[in-house]
Hints:
By secondary structure, the chain is an alpha/beta fold. It is built from eleven helices and 24 strands.
Amino acid sequence: xxxxxxxxxxxxxxxxxxxxxxxxxxxxxxxxxxxxxxxxxxxxxxxxxxxxxxxxxxxxxxxxxxxxxxxxxxxxxxxxxxxxxxxxxxxxxxxxxxxxxxxxxxxxxxxxxxxxxxxxxxxxxxxxxxxxxxxxxxxxxxxxxxxxxxxxxxxxxxxxxxxxxxxxxxxxxxxxxxxxxxxxxxxxxxxxxxxxxxxxxxxxxxxxxxxxxxxxxxxxxxxxxxxxxxxxxxxxxxxxxxxxxxxxxxxxxxxxxxxxxxxxxxxxxxxxxxxxxxxxxxxxxxxxxxxxxxxxxxxxxxxxxxxxxxxxxxxxxxxxxxxxxxxxxxxxxxxxxxxxxxxxxxxxxxxxxxxxxxxxxxxxxxxxxxxxxxxxxxxxxxxxxxxxxxxxxxxxxxxxxxxxxxxxxxxxxxxxxxxxxxxxxxxxxxxxxxxxxxxxxxxxxxxxxxxxxxxxxxx
Length: 459
C-alpha cells in the first residue's frame, strides 16, 4: 500500500513542477533577440513583494479565439509557389505546422478574385465589354489554379484545421455601375447574380478541398480608389445581404459565416447600422475591422451595441521600408493585445509575402506593402512575422481570453488554451527594464523585462 502511494506521488511531481514554472519567448525592438525561447525556466513562488502586478484570473472569461495569421494574397501565393519544392515545403511547415519548431499560423485571409496585391486584375466571370452572364455559365477558377489553390492545398495538408476567410475586392465589372474594376457600385439588378457568384465561389472552392470558413461582403467598402475596389455604403450592404446574399446562402445550405464591413475602426456606425436592421442581422455572424483610421477600442462599441455578434480584425499593413522597432511595438500593442482585449476573435496582418521591390501588385495597387516575408534570393522575415508568431504559436484556436489588468507601461493580454495552458503576452513600451509580478491564483512570478521588448509567457 505504501509503495503504491509513493509511486502515485512521484507520478504527480512533473505535473506540479510544470504548473509552477513558465517558459518565456522574447523579441526586442533592436532586433538583438528575434522570437527566441529563453533558456531559463521561470519559477512561480508565493505572493510577496511590492512590485506592480499583472493579475491573471482564468475564472473570468471572454471571447474564444479563431486564430492569428496573415492575408495570403495572390501575389504571396505566386511568390511562394515559385520556390523550389524543398524550400517551399520547409517554409510552409515553418509557417503552419503545429509543433515545437514552427509558428503554427491558424487563420488565413484570401481574396475572392484579385486583390490589389495580385499581379493583375481578374474576377471569375470576366467578359468582353457589353456582355453579361447572370446565369454564371462562364464562371471559372482557372486563375486560382495557377498558384493560390496549389499553395492552399499544401498548407491544408500541413494543418487541416486552418480557417480561411475570403474577401472580394470587386464583383465582375459587368455587374457595376461604372463597368470598371476600380470603384463604382453594385447594380441592384445584379444583386441576385452576385450573390450566386459568391455562393458558387464557396462551392467550387469546396470541390478543391478548400473550405471557406467565413466571407466578408466587401473589402474596404468605403475606399473605391483602390484597384480593384467597390463602393458599398452601409444601406447598400444591408440591402444586398437581406435581399440577396443571405437568402442565397440559406437556399444553398452554406454554413460559411457572413461578416460585414471589413474596414477602418473610425466608422463603427457602419456595422452597427446594418446590425440594427433585423432582416439583415439574422444572416450576419459579425463585423470585421482594419486600423488605418480610428482606434482599436471602437471595436468595443460595436460589441456593446450587439454583444451577440462576433468581431474580427482582418487587416493591417506595414509600409516599406520597415521601422522594425516602431512597427513591432505599435502592432503588438494595438493588434495582438488591443484587438482581443476589445473582443476580436482574430488578428490578421497584411500581407504574407512580397518580393524585394514590394511586388507583385496591380496597376494602382499598393506599392509599399511590406510582406511578413520578403522572398527574393533569400527569405527575409520582417516585423509582421514576429508580431504574429508571438501569439499564433501558443494561442491555438479555441483559446479563450481571460482577465488580466494593465499596469505601468505594460500592455498585455491573457488566454487559456484548449489544453489548459495559460498564455500571457506582455509589451514593455518603455526604454528601461521593468520588474513586475505576474500573479495567478495564489502564486507569483517576478520577471524583469528589458525596454521595448515583447514577451510571451506560457505556463
